[in-house]
Structure formats: structure tokens, C-alpha cells
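Example for tutorial group B:
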């Protein structure tokens, strides 16, 4: 099978021919049709996430069909279409797993990071961590739902019920979550890279009542804000934008350092939180909700061999919506 391999920080992914993996007990073999390109993949290849399996096949927004099943893998039939997210395995026994916080499991394994992912023709996955994909979506449209959608949704839930919602960084997660927020009758205030008029227009097209640079303050005090951009400076900036009792949620897995700021920005019961990974429950909830709204994803497709170019375009902010590798 074809695969794009991450071997060393600072080197482009290498195109390789590998043997198709065999599904172990409880696993399924999946023919990959599409795999989203996520900012987390950039954090992996840039070495900001420091514990990757090496060599590694990145990619954790995988849509494919089941080709073979390991021993005892009875949850799906051959030919079923499934999605594989970032959380690929958790222990099921620790206090986090037992209390509905499998996203925090110390032993958790992550697709496209500590286990091989979907920048390839085939992959194997633990059947318990696969989701059924709603028929409403094509393979490429569905791929971004699996991380940008799921972790974006978890961030939105963490942000509470506030009506005036700020979103910092209007990429893949934001373009999905803005649609959910609009469906919930919230007002979306979109913050983009200063001067990025195209991104502002994109946000307005998705129903944002206001769009501006991340260095600007919105015309009204916000109730809550989510930061998807990996930029620590945005934390005090978002605290300035929310009113008393306001919530600021950091939705990314990595962020540059947060500069110090006066306590007055946090006072009056403002709070800062973060979102880590996802639970299967987030996935079930979000994938049931998305086609009802319906959430539409805007995707830019690349061939598997173009993975390096897709990553580069994501890095430079040149992908509108989400980038997706199409494997066939
Ligand atoms: Zn656990
Ligand atoms: Zn991701």
C-alpha cells in the first residue's frame, strides 16, 4: 500500500510502499478513502508534540470502509463505512475511563501520533473507537467532522450556553462550529489573522454577525470565546473581549506561551479552560447532530502524494475550510 511516512522533524513526509497491516483481535482493517489534514498533524511533524511513534503514518480524520476483521471484531460488517478519530484506544480501567473522561486516560493511544493513522491506502483501528458515518456526507465532506468537528464540538460544549460567542482562528474547526452555534441561535463573532479579508468574508458567509482581526475588540462584550489558533497571545486578548463571568476555552492541543497579564482581566469570575482530545460520547452526539443542522463542510482536496503540500498550505493559512487527502 502507499503511505506517507513521518521519520524526522524538519523533513518532508516520505512516500513509501508498505505491507498492508493485519487486523489484530478486536481490530478492523480499513480501506482509507479520505483523511483530513489537521493542525495537530503540523504540531507532530514540527516536533511540538514530542512523543510520536517513529516512523509514523500521520492522519486522524479517517473515513473508509471495512475490508477485514480481526478475531472477535463483530461490531461492523465488511463494507461498512466508518470514521476513525484522534482517540484510538483507552484503557477502560482507570478512574478517568470509568468516569466518562476517557479523553484524559494516561494510557490513551492517539491515531496518527502514537499509532499509525490515515495518510495511507489502508489502516487498522480498534473497532470500539470507530464511528458510523452519516449517509448524508460524502467521504471527503465527512473527514473534517472527525477532529475539527468533534473537538470543536467539545470546545463549544465547554464554552457553555452564552449567546455571544467569539471564535479565534477561523479554520476547519471554526467553520464547522460556527454552523452549530448559529443553529443554537447564538451570535458568532469571528476573529481571523489581522488583515485576512478573505477569512473575514468566509466567516460572514457562515453566519458570523461580526468578523475582524484577532487584535481587534468586538463591538459588544462577549459571553464566551473559543480559541482554535495556536497563539498564546490570544488568551489575554480573549479575556479582554468577554464580559463578567465570561469563559475562554482553548481548543487546541498546543499553543505558544501565554504572556503574563494583569489579574483584572481574569477577575469578575472570568475563567480559562482547555479541551483535550475527545470521548466516544462526543463523537456519537456530534455525528447525530451534524446532519440534522445540517453542518456542511468546505473542503479542499489533495492526493495522498500531495500531503506535504497540503500541510504547507495549512501552515500558511491558505486552506479555506478543511484540507482532505483523497486516497481513492
Ligand atoms: Zn484509562
Ligand atoms: Zn485533529
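The residue assignment follows.
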Amino acid at each position: 500500500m502507499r503511505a506517507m511516512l513521518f521519520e524526522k522533524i524538519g523533513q518532508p513526509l516520505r512516500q513509501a510502499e508498505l505491507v498492508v497491516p493485519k487486523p489484530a483481535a478486536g481490530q478492523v482493517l480499513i480501506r482509507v478513502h479520505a483523511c483530513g489534514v489537521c493542525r495537530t498533524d503540523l504540531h507532530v511533524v514540527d516536533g511540538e508534540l514530542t512523543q510520536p511513534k517513529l516512523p509514523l503514518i500521520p492522519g486522524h480524520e479517517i473515513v473508509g470502509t471495512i475490508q477485514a476483521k480481526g478475531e472477535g471484531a463483530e461490531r461492523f460488517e465488511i463494507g461498512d463505512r466508518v470514521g476513525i478519530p484522534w482517540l484510538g484506544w483507552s484503557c477502560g480501567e482507570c478512574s478517568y475511563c470509568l468516569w466518562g473522561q476517557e479523553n484524559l486516560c494516561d494510557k490513551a493511544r492517539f491515531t496518527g501520533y502514537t499509532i499509525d493513522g490515515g495518510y495511507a491506502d489502508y489502516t487498522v483501528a480498534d473497532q470500539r473507537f470507530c464511528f458510523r458515518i452519516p449517509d448524508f456526507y460524502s467521504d471527503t465532506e465527512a473527514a473534517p467532522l472527525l477532529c475539527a468537528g468533534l473537538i470543536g464540538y467539545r470546545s463549544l460544549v465547554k464554552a457553555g450556553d452564552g449567546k455571544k460567542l467569539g471564535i479565534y482562528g477561523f479554520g476547519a474547526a471554526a467553520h464547522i462550529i460556527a454552523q452549530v452555534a448559529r443553529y443554537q441561535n447564538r451570535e458568532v463573532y469571528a476573529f481571523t489573522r489581522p488583515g485576512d479579508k478573505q477569512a473575514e468574508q468566509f466567516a460572514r458567509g457562515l453566519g458570523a454577525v461580526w468578523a475582524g482581526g484577532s487584535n481587534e475588540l468586538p463591538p459588544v462584550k462577549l459571553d464566551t470565546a473559543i480559541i482554535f489558533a495556536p497563539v498564546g497571545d490570544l488568551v489575554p486578548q480573549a479575556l479582554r473581549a468577554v464580559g463578567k463571568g465570561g469563559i475562554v476555552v482553548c481548543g487546541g492541543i498546543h499553543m505558544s506561551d501565554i504572556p503574563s497579564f494583569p489579574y483584572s482581566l481574569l477577575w469578575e469570575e472570568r475563567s480559562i479552560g482547555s479541551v483535550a482530545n475527545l470521548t466516544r460520547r462526543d463523537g456519537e452526539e456530534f455525528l447525530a447532530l451534524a446532519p440534522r443542522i445540517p453542518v456542511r463542510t468546505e473542503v479542499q482536496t489533495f492526493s495522498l502524494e500531495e500531503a506535504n503540500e497540503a500541510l504547507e498550505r495549512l501552515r500558511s493559512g491558505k486552506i479555506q475550510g478543511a484540507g482532505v487527502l483523497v486516497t481513492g
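Residues 90-91, 93-94, 96-97, 105, 107 surround zinc ion (ligand 1) (CB under 6 Å). Compare this with the pattern of hydrophobic and polar residues in the output above.
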